[in-house]
Amino acid sequence: EEAQSITIGSRNSPLAMAQAHIVHDALEQAQQHPKERKFDPEQAFAPQALHRFRISGVATKGDKILDVALAKIGDKGLFTKELEVALMHGDVSLVQHSLKDLETVMPADLALGAVLKREDKRDALVSAAANKFKSLADLPKGATVGTSSLRRRAQLAAARPDLHIVDVRGNLNTRIAKLLGVHETSRVKYDALVLAAAGLVRLPNAKDVLRDVHIAPIDPQVMVPAVSQGAIGVQVRARDWGTQRLVQLAEDQETRAACDHERTFLRDIQGGCQVPVAV
Fold this sequence. Notes:
By secondary structure, this protein is α/β, with parallel strands linked by helices. 32% of the residues lie in helices and 19% in strands.
């Protein structure tokens, strides 16, 4: 098999690009050291040639519409559709997604080629370092908490009916800036945000971006995570066997099995971004 130039498609937010680099590094490592990867030798074979990888950023509808709550936009694939179109048109070789954003029913021409090892799947309570709230119970009565997720909103309301829960949009850097009151569009004084712990771990320059905040992971018994939260999915063209074999080298089988079960549940109940479902 000849060496090829492989283009990794990704949303162009800082966090998404960081995830694209995780995929980039995983694929480079996998093709250079295939014996160190956990995969079924009967199903996937290491390519003989070393491919070259590059990353291409794409803005999705969810990235562009920032003044409307996600649940009110009323569309599927808010953070994935443009990437899937680019993949089907051959503009990119594969795309990486936060797997929780990827529809369980995808176009027939596409397939979920691999799932990388899962990061922390919990949600986290993020507050200014000066406040240092350690849990939902630690929040003052009537505190203002920001989230763009119906699932988080529903569970926050169940755990603390007194909270004032408001929408917060923008990429992770923007939301942190809004929490701290230093973003140019800040109009709400947030006491805390609820965010995915995995994103906080993967965020580029996390030490600098998060230096003025306190992060407290939330017990999954208090706030059940989203389907596939913390996992990165690699989507490929269904008949692109060469790329499928390549990405399978980077797959984490334990994460894949868990996410397949979770996504099957979500598909069976026809859940999505507009339904507060947790697993």
